[in-house]
Design brief:
Helix content is about 55%, strand content about 10%. The protein is α+β, with helices and mostly antiparallel strands.
Amino acid sequence: MAKDRVDAGRGRRGDVVKKSKASKSKTPFYAGIAVVALVGVGALAYVSSRPRNVATTVDPKIAAGDTVARGYLLGKPDAPVQVIEFADFECPACAQFATLAEPDIKKRLIDTGIISYRFHDFPLAMHRNTWPAHNAAACADEQGKFWEMHDQLFNQQDRWNGQATSRPKSQFESYARAIGLNVDQWEACYDARKYESRIRASEALATKSGASQTPTFIIGTKMVGGSISFDRFKAMVDSALALVPRDSATKGGVGGDTAVKQPVPTKGASGS
């Protein structure tokens, strides 16, 4: 009995010792978790507090003075506020902007003569099918329907992007038919990569202008990257418009009822 009690006592004491050792051995583990948690909280705090889509001041003449990279114009070329977009047709953020913000921008800012909107190709190497997409759009522009193809490509991006297919041409051809192109002419242009040099010129202009992501916008003298909301876009346009001399704004068709009555080109061919 005594032996049993001793053994039992030893057993209990041994168990206590083992728990103590286990507790000590787990101390660094829990300390590590605490450190990771603190780092995570700090990172989240930084991300949530840092400014997003920060606008920087640029010289718009860098882009405006390039006669090779013409881009594709929507609206009046002499509108008081000039806007440039550098975009990639396979970029999800570009598609988000094109489908969510761009319809309001066209209706409220382009069609009213407030801004001139110029799209420039900025295909990124990370996107497998983006060059064929830009090629498809350039060949649609040859027949005066760049913007119609632009809308098809962004609205149906999930059907032709690099995750969906390795052969996007058939999708692009269906869009060419849908928007009323001469498909034989479009296909000949597409297969020949007829406007590759023009796309490369816009790509080079994007880099020269300081664009580092897609989409990137130059609104007046401010550059901002990312898929910004319509409200943010309009606020930047308003700021740019405030810097325009009043007589220039009036000549551009802005001011009172006359802005709405101005005949404005809609989705047409490339810029002048």
